[in-house]
What does this fold into?
Amino acid sequence: MTKLIVLIVIILGVIAIAQLVRMYELSSKLRNRREEDVPNRDNRLNATLLLVFMFAFFASVLYLFVEYGYTGRGEAASVHGKGTDWLMNLNMFIIIAVFFLTNGLLFGFAFKYVRKPGVKAYWFPHDNRLELVWTVVPAIVLAVIIILGLKSWNEQTDKSPDEAIRLELFSKQFDWTVRLAGDDNTLGYFDYKLTNENNPLALLTTKTIQDAIDSMENSSTGIHALESKLNDPKLIFVPEDHDLMVKDLARKERMIRMLYQLKARHSSALDARAMDDIPFNANDTLYLCKGQDYEFNFRSKDVIHSALMPHFRAQMNTVPGQTTRFKLQPTIATWEMREKMHNPKFNYILMCNKICGSSHYKMKLMVVVLDKPAYNKWYLGVSYVDSEKQQAELKKILGHKPTMEERQEWLKKSKVFKLTYALTKPAEVPAAAPTDSIPAPVAVVPAVQ
It folds into this structure.
């Protein structure tokens, strides 16, 4: 019933408008005036209304600036973010000045030069000086903006200082995974052919290569199993299934050849680069230290993503097949920003700023900035391997010499790759996705000596 009433109202509204237009046409004929003849009174009224609209328009823009400002981003929380904000403010100043100037001239001229009886418009088709001014001035302004932008960009992507902590952000649909460099502050090498659930970041070591080979050859859906099924005279397959198995076998044979080539070229001396790395689970919180330089390295497994950290004024695309990077130094701890924002629930955030698929909206990662003592305690927990140096640091935290049980508990919390990566048998390689669906391993924590 409601829809019918709405439909009737719309129809009646259209009929009423049509009748009003018809009445206007009839009244024009009665006044013996052509449609294109506009009376001076209407011209003056339109000119006045344009001027009123201009002031209302400007007032609404100023209100929005005052009321919403930068939409709650708050103060820049990184060193380069302050420079980015300065450049943004410069751009906004130029844009706002041009906005008020051009719109002021547009509406002002419409009011000032309204048609007057007996006054003929001045014919002004061209002026070289005006053409030069409105070509050269915008070109100079744009050149300044571009040069300053390139300078800022080069500073953000320039070589990081030696003391900068190296970390990696690995993106895939639809999550982020953090890998932190270990005590050597060097990220281990990786190779996409080693990607599986045991090794989602495809870290390159002698063990991960051999495990990938074993899985490809000896799992229940590996090469040997496929060959056995295809060559078994007792098994009969429909043609479609047989063709799929042949294609799967050919693909795995190509992959195993590349894995053996990778094994032949690999040097075990490079294993140490990856073994002390600290890979976290997908969407684990990213912890940073206030005042510490960082070098962010970005990779993507599938499509282009974009790592946006709005409060640090930082963004970088993550591109399949290549590594992108920028450097960053946080300047405001999370608890300090909560006070500045008057929001006890505030947290920094990392978001994907590219529409990367149906669950793009889920691709978020919480970022926490700690002061130096709190960060050191957190880092000891995730990097603990029970070295003498770490035992001494643990003693300072606990206030006494750690017992064997306490050291064992800290070892269990550790996320160092050499402690969390362990396989007791070849992982299964499903036929449909041989490198993406291998069961996760059971972590083996070494006993404290």
Q: What stands out?
A: Residues 428-449 have pLDDT under 50 and may be disordered. Residues 79-112 form the longest helix (34 residues). The radius of gyration is 34 Å.
